Amino acid sequence: MHPPASELLGWYDRHRRVMPWRGARDPYRIWLSEVMLQQTTVAAVEPRYRRFLDRFPDVEALAAAPWEAVAAEWAGLGYYARARNLHAAARAVVARGGFPGDEAGLRALPGIGAYTAAAVAAIAFNQPAVPVDGNVERVTARVFDVRDPLPGSRARLAVLARGFLDQALVRERPGDFAQALFDLGATLCTPRRPACALCPWNAHCAARAAGVQDSLPAKAPKAARAQRFGLHFLLRDREGRMLLRQRPPSGLLGGMAEIPGTPWRLETPWTLAEALPQAPVAAAWRLLPGTAQHGFTHMELLMRLAVAEASVAAPPGCFWLPAEEARATLPTAMRRLLALAEGGAGARDDAGANGPLLAEPASPVAPSGETTAPAARRGGRTRRTA
DNA sequence: AAAACGGGGCA
DNA sequence: TGCCCAGTTTT
């Protein structure tokens, strides 16, 4: 049995969270928020959403913008395919004269899958759809006591969630119902220690009745992350500009800028001597102490940094950028590398206006003793090796 | 069906 | 330190 939507919507009308994309019906704003919120927390999105909207106020402005401007605005948000697809979809929407008004039409746009199509259809167009995200999966798995593990149970959970459309109230307020499920999952029906006592559906929850709410939804075990190693080359000229390179349009960090370097290979860290043939230019490269570490979904990346100064023409595929602009454009993994040049372990992302970067004392070029993987540390911080 | 694809925050 | 987050695309 599906619990009554009236009880959830009554709770939502009293306790709904206030967020910048709520209230308006503008499909552009709803769409933008949904894309930014893919695998990204509300807290992380809010300031970036305002800033993005400030810079690209409507779909026409986004469609007219060059990719470089969109990439710079997205830098640090992750999953850069989202930005590429967003840009392409904006151009498609302008070309066809506006947003598609139903789920199937939305689903055909790049970067819009089953979830986002349902969310925009329900919230912006009042269409009868139930978007199934992580929150809805969790709420549904608990309400119906679905014990099969994710991701295998995904299809079954989606069918159960869609069953709420049998209630007339859900068909009348599909956008509110969807967001009520999000809010319930985010504030009460949380992954750990759900606040069942406060839940408007607690009397209808099968998992709670069985006392298994804390262990649902079950998850299949995940694969371990491999380690990869890279060595990068930071070239600066006399004005403090940095030599950057554009990554290929698809794949990891696709279309984003990077500090030129070796490929990221398994098993073995690079020595400077070994990496030198892959430097962007010939120069007096000095290997800095320390390793920048960055965790991706599927691997752990460990990078070292060599530095040099030269004022030369940018080689093919590379370009010079003022330090401040480079910092703003680079994805987080590359900013961590930059922190090595800026003075090491304590360096922070928001470490103020940087003039010419401070050079560290050079370490001997010798293959450092660090041939074994350094102890894992919290994803991303810059670490010093002794 | 499985893997690729970022980054930050929190118990 | 592992898990989670308003998922989508490619293989």
TrEMBL record:
Q: What Gene Ontology terms describe what this protein does at the molecular function level?
A: hydrolase activity, acting on glycosyl bonds
Q: How is the cofactor bound?
A: Binds 1 [4Fe-4S] cluster.
Catalytic activity reported: Hydrolyzes free adenine bases from 7,8-dihydro-8-oxoguanine:adenine mismatched double-stranded DNA, leaving an apurinic site
Boundaries of each HhH-GPD domain copy?
36-187
Residues of the region (Disordered) are 346-386
* Cofactor(s) the protein requires to work: [4Fe-4S] cluster
The organism is Roseomonas elaeocarpi
* UniProt KW keywords: 4Fe-4S, DNA damage, DNA repair, Glycosidase, Hydrolase, Iron, Iron-sulfur, Metal-binding
What enzyme class is recorded for this protein? hydrolase
* PANTHER family recorded: ADENINE DNA GLYCOSYLASE
Protein name stated in the entry: Adenine DNA glycosylase
Family to which the UniProt record says this protein belongs: Belongs to the Nth/MutY family.
